[in-house]
Amino acid sequence: MTSEHIAAALKRVQTVLGRRPGMGLQDDAPATAVWQDDMRVVVAHDNGTRVATDMASELGGSGDLVAPGWLLRAGLASCATTSIALAAAAQDIDLRGLEVRVSSRSDTRGLLGMADARGEPVAAGPSEITMSVRIAASGVASERLRALVEAGCRCSPVPDLVVRVTPLVLRIDVDAG
Fold first, then answer.
1. 68-108+123-166: CATH homologous superfamily?
2. pLDDT tens across 96-137, in order?
3. Are 29 and 49 in contact, with CB atoms under 8 Å apart?
4. Tens of pLDDT along 67-98?
5. Are 42 and 71 in contact (CB under 8 A)?
6. pTM (2 decimals)?
7. What is the C-alpha separation between 4 and 2, in angstroms, rounded?
8. Does the chain have fewer CB atoms within 10 Å around its N or its C terminus?
């Protein structure tokens, strides 16, 4: 797919949504996780795509598969990369390269429900997330590429979820049988 084709598609969608904003609201495809055994979980998309996760051997897993937290980082990196590429196409910038790396720092004590030295619960999620972007385009000023990356990340759904701290609604169904 050429960047011109992407830009044309974006313009068509923007035109439609400009006329009928309600068409932009949709339910996102759910991810359904099913515990297999030990620490292995398989997550499925309605289209049949499946991703298996496991934990490190220190936590009772095999360590052979990616951990669930990696999927968050992968989603952040993939979503940001996609949004930056969309922004580049919309601005008629031909990218030579684009790479997004997401890393984080976590404290395993939070996963285990432990407290710190003061008796305060340790957070289960990452205390820090870093997104590093490498971008290249011939004949485009570095300031313009930096602005492109920043704009792309602002419009990227998964990074936005993290920045805005989207509320989580927890629904529990207990099978008494």
1. K homology (KH) domain (3.30.300.20)
2. 999 999 999 999 999 999 999 999 999 999 999 999 999 999
3. no
4. 999 999 999 999 999 999 999 999 999 999 99
5. no
6. 0.88
7. 5
8. C
